[in-house]
Amino acid sequence: MELLIWGDQGWGDELFTASLMTIAISLSSYAVGLVFGCIGAALKLVENRWANILGEIYTTVFRGIPELLVVYLFFFGGSLAVMSVASVFGYNGYIEVDAFIVGMLAIGVVAGAYAAESLRGGYLAIPKGLIEAGLACGMTRSHLARRVIFPQTLQYALPGLSNLWLINLKSTALLSVTGLVELTRQANIAAGSTYKFLYFYIVAALIYAALSFFSTIVIKRIETWSNRGTVRIKV
Length: 235
Description:
With 235 residues, the chain is an all-alpha fold. It has one domain (2-226): MetI-like fold (Orthogonal Bundle). Helices cover 77% and strands 0% of the residues. It is built from 8 helices and no strands. The longest helix has 34 residues, at 12-45. The termini are far apart. The model has no long low-confidence stretch (mean pLDDT 86).
């Protein structure tokens, strides 16, 4: 346990900071994923052939490409794009994009492809009678969306979105290849410095498990809250 004390003699504070970085990149990339997921779901649901094709391309491509490859494409492709723009203004040196932003976008875009399918499925699960009843009561389209469509879609999509959060949390480990000092990267640094590889990898695994366990508790509370007032019939 001496290796986990805080200060210069241990790695406790570094691992704690790296865990906070993991949480930060998970939350930010998940938020990005929800934005892209809403856009992707809308493209696949609207009655427009070209929008449907665009949404299908997005979800198919980013669910089919390995996440690590997406991270590489965003990291090196982002640097190339920035350098191309800089060269127009006369700067020809190497520019490295921010690892946090690249990781947030790379993981977020992939998460968005899965979130799009969960949201689309949630929308399609809404009984048509609810929408027809809302229109019959004189609800406007915007009022119907706020009071019926959006809450019902989230309720049906919540299990898929909850599972996506846990996957998203673990996917942050892939960002260690970009130099971002999150939990996996910090564990690797500590292991390389002390040659206690198995020890620090087990510690990192336990931290990931603890974060997942806490997330599961929060998810169950959210699901209980979202299902309040719902009557379940046992068959």
